[in-house]
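Students often ask why we bother encoding 3D structure as a string. The short answer is that it lets us treat folding as translation between two languages. Here is a chain of 836 residues written in the first language.
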Amino acid sequence: MKIPTATYRIQFRNGLNFDTATGLIPYLKQLGISHLYASPVFTATSDSTHGYDITDANEIDPSIGGREGFDRMAQALKAAGIGLILDIVPNHMAASPENAWWRDVIEHGEKSRYARHFDIDWSRRLTLPFLGDSFEDALQKGEITLKVDPLTGKPAFDYFGTYYPVAPGTLTADNTDGLNKTELAALHERQPYRLMCWRDAPRELSYRRFFEITGLAGVRVEDDVVFDDTHRLILELVHAGVVDGLRVDHVDGLADPKAYLERLREKAGPDCYITVEKILGKGERLPPDWPVSGTTGYEFIASLSDVLVNDENIAVLSELYDNVVGKPVDLRNELRAAKLMMVEKNFEGEFTALWKLATDIAGTEDAPYEENDIRTALRELLIAFPVYRTYGTPRGMPAEDAALLHKILRKVSATILPVQAEILAFLVRILCGETSAAAASQAGLFRTRFQQLTGPLMAKSVEDTLFFRQNMELALNEVGAEPLIRTFSLSRFHTEMIKRCEEQPEALSATSTHDTKRGEDARARLFTLTEAPQEWAACVKRWHRMNESKVRILPDGPAPRPALTWMLYQALAGAWPVTLAPQDEQGLQELDDRFQSFVEKALREAKLRTSWDDNNEDYEKAVLDYAHHLLSPANRLFLQDFHTSIQPFIQAGLVNSLTQTVIKLMAPGVPDIYQGSEALNFSLVDPDNRRLPDFTRLEQRLRQDEKPAWDQQAYWLNGHLKQYVVATLAGLRQQKPALFQQGDYVPLSATGKHAENVIAFARVSNDEAVIIAAPRLVLGLPARGFPQTEIVLPPHLAYRPYRELFSDKEITLNNQIDMAVWPGFAPVILIASASS
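And here it is in the second language, the structure alphabet:
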């Protein structure tokens, strides 16, 4: 297996197709990239902006160049010596008539050849929740008619241009135009499906969906036939040597992830590089028996906060935020509230199905429990679940997962909640397969459905609710991060990297993805708020006062409330382009357009005064108007004050950006560069972070002959310095693959006046070694290096000759590195060769 030395993630669509990617190959080669890491390339819905709503898993999407364009790109990559990693989506497909398999299921119901391809409950009619009203109301309004589908020439229900086929033998009239509404309603009742309002999906859906997205139907890849049908082209490309690696999307959504990965490994062969999208919770490890190289790296993003957060000030920042909110924020209660809402509302149907199944099992087992008591216990078990899922199978529950379940049982039983410990223990026995033979089948289904629900519950409760409600420090509100405040320390980071070196040396290390809540450089900048919390709070208070006239008083309170303005100013500070001036009207307009979309999404994801399924238009308009006013050229006093006030955070954030880049390129794991993030990335949440980068400018900058100077501000501000660091370190990884893939991670300690302002470590393999030192927590420090600060070297690294990578200076070290001789905030990379 060829392990990548550095990957480059690109998002097809949104202006990027195979020809565009082919044109980037010389640039990627110069950047030091070993593998192109591509978003899904298979045919998706016609309006797809991301490719995860696949309609044909065995066709390359014509909208981005089709098979011919793909082959041209693959051949060009091969000629350049660059590998190709594909993002595959085994968990779901588009629930759309554009999907021929799904369309066949709509038309033929349980008789369809593909009826078992999708995770559908066939004890009832297939629900299609794509109407704006109930079927009856839509029919009365004349929104549903019977027409000939122009694609198939067959009769179909037409709803605003979407055609739902009429099942064979259910239409008795010859004239499709001659049916009245009563007859149309009767015809609808004879279909194997039921058209219904999208608002009813959380309660009545008959198929497993991806999270809350009813347009994505779960696929049963645990069935061998379904696996073969959905992986035919994928495996063809792997076996032909066109594709070198696979990234498995949302592996936790599968019925049996381990069995799936074992089959994928068997079919793809031992040389295929495979990673999985998997969120690891606190203390959780990737199952060691999965035949993969590791995860896609969200836990690496979380670990960087230990380097860039000033732990001494977290309590201060929290108190200041509490003052703005008007009361102490109890994050545990907030997390519980978010999970409770998800269980009882957003995933009501899934929860109810589990409850009924548990009740049936209790009956089979002659367990005399009241239905409502079972419901309460099940609800609390789901709410208390601390990780995405367990991995039980009909063969049993892994020992680690069984221990976790019993730990949760004890924790919930010890609370004052009205839960019967006996029923909790009963549910845990079901999950562990400790039931009678008569209940084994029901218990297996319960375990599968439970495990497929806990992940979406966690993700939607934390990432898409709590992280939009609680905004003390937005940089901590990231995919894979812990929802509860903890301590941050370099020692923890070093411990995590040693563990990563042992367990996931071949996993991807990400800092930005298509799913992160903000670009990596926006996050790096916002971390600096923990270095000056009082100054930040004073700014917010002043800005709120300056814009107070734009706050509207609504029946349910002011819009926005002070706590929300704290978030708005912070998000704006993170996204503010480094070179944007207050008088630049075009630049302000461009930022405002992006900011408006972010604010709308943030309000709806928070689900407090508005939501996606229940829009509070007055509230949304008031907040959006406020946000628009912030960036209005007429708001000169505020803009000038804002611009001036955030400059220290911007400067310190740029240092953070380079530090996290250096760590990612040098620490254990395979560094993944998200498109455009080799320069500065201050994007907001998707879809903003999926915009097409200015590749022309990136290519031109990297082609420049001059080496960017560390002491020239322009190179920091335009992203050239960061791009240079990426290219230089990626090149080093290509020169010394064994050192970075197999070498040890050795933490190094600093002493002296600025010991806390430096992170240092080494990568060591036999006689080869690289020593890395980078600045941290530099807000307010002069850019003159770190006098009276030394990095202590262990004996096997001391008294050796080294070459400093960026300056190319030769230096012989004694038993320490004097940081005073390295001026400015430049990272230090010292290389010792095997012959030294």
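Translate back mentally: Residues 440-469 form the longest helix (30 residues). Keep this in mind for the problem set.
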